[in-house]
Each structure stands twice: as C-alpha cells, then as structure tokens.
Design brief:
By secondary structure, the chain is mainly alpha-helical. The chain contains seven helices and three strands, in the order αααααβααββ. It has three domains: 56 residues; 55 residues, no CATH class; 58 residues, Arc Repressor Mutant, subunit A. Strands 1-3-2 form a three-stranded antiparallel sheet. It is flat.
Amino acid sequence: MKISNPLTIIAVFAGLAEAFATIALIKLPENSQQVFLYFVMGFPTLLVILFFYTLHKNHKVLYGPSDYKDQSMFFDLIRESVSEEMEKSLLENSSISETEKSNVSKAVSNILESAENKTRKEQILGYLSNGRALTKNICEDLGVHHSYATKILRELSDSGDIKRLEFDGERGVYWELSHA
C-alpha cells in the first residue's frame, strides 16, 4: 500500500482503530460494552466530519507535489495560499507602511517563483553540472533530506540523465551527469 497523502493515513488509522476497538469490545465486561459500543460507532463518524471540515476549510493541505501531474499546479496553490496569508497578516499589522508591505509582498513572490522555476530535480542536475558528487554532499549542500534525494537521484538515473558511479565504502555513492 502506498501512503502518499494524509487521506490514506487517516483511512489506515481509522481502519486499525475500528478493528482493535471491535476486538476490545468483546473482551469488555457487559456493563461497559454499551458505552464503548457508542464510542466505536461515533469515532469514525467524528473522523469523517473532521476530515470534511478540514477539506472544506483548507483543502490544499491534503495534497503534496507528487499528487499533481504537473508540479507547477502545486506551486500555484502554494503561491496563492502564501499570498493570502501574507496579505491577511500585513493588513492586521498597521505599524507597517504601504511601501514595506509592497516590498515584503514582492520578496515573497520572488521566492515562490524561484522555487517553482527550479525543482529539486533541476537543482540536483545543476549541482552535478559542476562534476561528480556524493549523495551526502548533494543532500547537505542543497538542503534535501537523504531519502528524498536518493529517490530523485534514482529517478534521474532511470531516465538516463545521470549515472551512478561507484560506492565508496563509508563515504557513499558518487553520481554524475550522463553526458559528462
């Protein structure tokens, strides 16, 4: 089973909770079973209500970049969300001048645009354009979690953009561009 978004986690949690609750219900004394039965029936209902409330209020939190065919759509949502939050925050703070508000707004837009324009794959390819590198160095220099970097490196290797060189004992794996 692939867990790729919070909905899957919620479903797995709810299923396990119900299964264990049903087992526990049988083992409870008869005078406690009725109260626990109401909990077993009410818990999934409460989860569903809370899920749909979250979905209604902030549907953007349920999806990650990998859930989109085109990651630029994800960045559009993030940009929109950050812009809304920033505007709300700036409006609440009356001590900031209009010029400062405008400067902050422009800076945030620039940051989000540069993030959109340079995906992690592009960052790694750019990094490797300087020569071969260890996975560890790529992670540290680009600020990417090791497991995420390894996943991206494997994808780039599978697509033929980069090649895996050798494993250097404790140091790790070296990578370089295929056309280097």
